[in-house]
Amino acid sequence: MRVPGMRTLDASDRSLLLVFDDRISLAAHGDVLRLTPLLRSVRGVTNVHPAYASILIDFDPRAIRHGEVERAAAELFAQAASAPLPEPRTVEIPVAYGGECGPDLEQVAALTGHTPDEVVAIHSSAEYLVYFLGFSPGFPYLGGLPESIAAPRLETPRRRVPAGSVAIGGRQTGVYPMASPGGWRIIGRTALRLFDPEADPPVLLQMGDRVKFVPLAGGAF
Amino acid sequence: MTTVQDLGRPGYAHLGISASGAADALSLRAGNLLVGNPDGAAALEMTLAGGTFEFESRAIVALTGADFDASIPLWTRVWVKPGERVKCGHARSGARCYLCVNGGIEVPMVLGSASTHLLTGLGGYEGRALKRGDVLRMTAGSGAQAPRGLKPAPHSGAIRVTSPTNAEDLCRSGWEVQADSDRMGLRLRGPALDSHTGHMLTEGVPLGAVQVPPDGQPIILFVEHQTTGGYPKIANVISADFHAVGQLRPRDQVRFEQVSIDAALTLLEAQEEWLHSLV
After folding, report:
1. How many CB pairs under 8 A join A and B?
2. In angstroms, rounded to a whole number, what is the distance separating the alpha carbons of residues A97 and A43?
């Protein structure tokens, strides 16, 4: 089935990939945002993985097959195309920048030709868009990092990045919801929990949210 | 290493949470059927090394999966008496075995599943692998009729994959499973594959995806895989062979064989028929 604005790929014997664009765009993000909740309620669909410009649909091949999933996705895509997007939430994330909480802040400053205070000012003045959650529980893929503070990833990833670390990796910035290995440069830390399995929903941020980082005075929590 | 596993935690990939669950779900399901449970009941998954499990009360148990040189026979149900111990040694071949008990293992459900997600410390018994001295509860069983024993499904040897393009380069060579493989992914070593180093947008990754990072050494993304990734994926293990991936261990030699999606689904149907012929 051909639908303008969407192409599909049989990614495995139990999954179908919907692609809306080959680059990051707000239009594709809108498609992903509208379609993700609708796809989750399709019978036989077990998981939905939104991304920048695509959605991967996992399904139980004992209940439904590629052709049926594709038809359902095409119908929902046509229905959703004109639906207005919900008014975005803005979530403020308090951050202790630098020092023990942000061991790479000075390096990022040196790499980008700024003082550490300037990096903090630039990082905390921008508004970021949560394109989607992925990789690990509650991890937000954020868009909107000012290019002037983009800094290459570490050559050797750290074995353990503390939970709540705010970091820059190339042209991306993000917050590590839990302690994990990681190769981004850590500029600060938040005490907010981005992932809490006891909470409902278990994640702080949702796809489509706007995020502001708010520097904590004195660099402490 | 031993963890509590069931058939996983689907429905949360949009929050970045992969399904987890038994690495060899076929053995888990067969074991559950043997003790009269629903096929997705929680059981113990042992990886490479087993343990000694003492039962405080009478139980019906079954051990399935790899041969761990255990004190009870594989692939059959066994009655254990109060105070009796089931001992499992080291895996003689394969990587994982499952100790299923009538009624299932009782742990708090987290996001709808008893499965342990080790990386995030989620679910299972306190979100971790079991330690000496842990005490687990069993749910009261139904005592339903169950088959007495069964033969495991034979496996051809090659891991079969589908590919949206073609997996010729992957299928041409033999691969060795590396020691740093785990429930997140199986790292393979062999002749470097072209990783198509061009820019790729991060996108969702399915269970069993064979991804190729810049060093050209493929990784099979497994039950605790990341939900999205930015490396090219050249093939995907078929559902009917997930159980065989769950039995791979470090230094195993692996070969791949490409099949069509239709063939993959026919193989899955045959496997399901085999499983359901047991009850």
Report:
1. 143
2. 46
Give how far A127 is from chain B: nearest CA, Å: 21
Residue of B nearest to A16 (CA): B206
Pairing verdict, β B77-80 and B253-254: unpaired
Structure tokens at B78: 């066994």
What distance in Å separates the CA atoms of residue A180 and residue A182, rounded to the nearest whole number?
6
Mind listing the pLDDT tens digit for each residue in A39-69?
Answer: 999 999 999 999 999 999 999 999 999 999 9
CB distance B203–A51 less than 8 Å?
Answer: yes
Chain A residues touching residue B236 (CB < 8 angstroms): 11-13, 15
pTM of the model: 0.93
Q: To which residue do tokens 């971790």 refer?
A: B128
Q: CA B223: distance to chain centroid?
A: 7
Which candidate from B119, B121, B239 shows the least CB-CB separation from A13? B239
* Closest Cβ–Cβ partner in A49, A62, A207 for B204: A49
Calpha distance B74→B84 (Å, rounded): 17
Q: What is the pLDDT of residue A84?
A: 85
Give B154-175 pLDDT, tens digit per residue. 676 899 999 988 899 999 999 9
**What is the tens place of the pLDDT at every residue in A85-117?**
888 999 999 999 999 999 999 999 999 999 999
